[in-house]
Automatic annotation (TrEMBL):
Species in which this protein is naturally found: Oceanidesulfovibrio indonesiensis
Gene3D superfamilies: TolB, C-terminal domain (2.120.10.30)
Signal peptide residues on this chain, from the entry's feature table: 1-27
Keyword Signal attached: yes
Keyword field: Signal
Protein name: Uncharacterized protein
Length: 165
């Protein structure tokens, strides 16, 4: 077995490279731990926007950088500053959300068969009822919403009543 000899500059170079790798690994580890343990994946690094929510589920991006999250029968808004406020309470869980171009949020409640519209001022109205398992929802640019109905195997477009006149 031959023994290799390294000079001082080579050893310093190896130590320097190891120190760089160690610093990069530690920085990545600290960032992912700050993000509630979600880590980084394929070029993304996690950052916690809110903590302590009750079973958060569906999320949509709304106007002015706000995020809306369905959380156990409630819809909460997370502002760009990280402030969390309830927008609607007492809705049946689970909820599936969609953002509308006018800034309102639609919430489909599969178990109840209802779709709710939450206006920017927080007013909640029943947009549709008696649907067989509304499992997915989207809103088009005209304010009509499209719902996938798990109970009947259909996808339907619900037209705004003022668009039908």
């Amino acid at each position: 077995m031959t023994r290799r000899q390294y000079n001082t500059s080579t050893m310093l170079g190896i130590v320097f490279v190891l120190a760089l790798f160690s610093a990069a690994w530690c920085a990545d580890r600290q960032e992912s731990e700050a993000g509630a343990g979600a880590g980084s994946h394929a070029g993304y690094v996690s950052k916690a926007l809110a903590r302590g929510l009750d079973a958060p589920g569906s999320i949509v991006c709304g106007p002015r950088g706000n995020h809306y999250v369905a959380a156990q029968g409630s819809i909460v808004m997370i502002s760009p500053d990280g402030d969390v406020s309830a927008v609607a309470d007492g809705l049946p869980a689970p909820l599936v959300l969609a953002a509308a171009p006018d800034g309102s949020v639609y919430a489909a409640a599969p178990a109840a068969g209802n779709v709710y519209r939450i206006a920017q001022d927080g007013r909640c109205t029943l947009a549709a009822q008696g649907l067989p398992g509304p499992a997915g929802i989207a809103v088009d640019r005209d304010g009509n919403f499209i719902v996938s109905l798990a109970g009947s195997g259909e996808v339907v477009r619900m037209l705004r009543t003022d668009a039908c006149q």
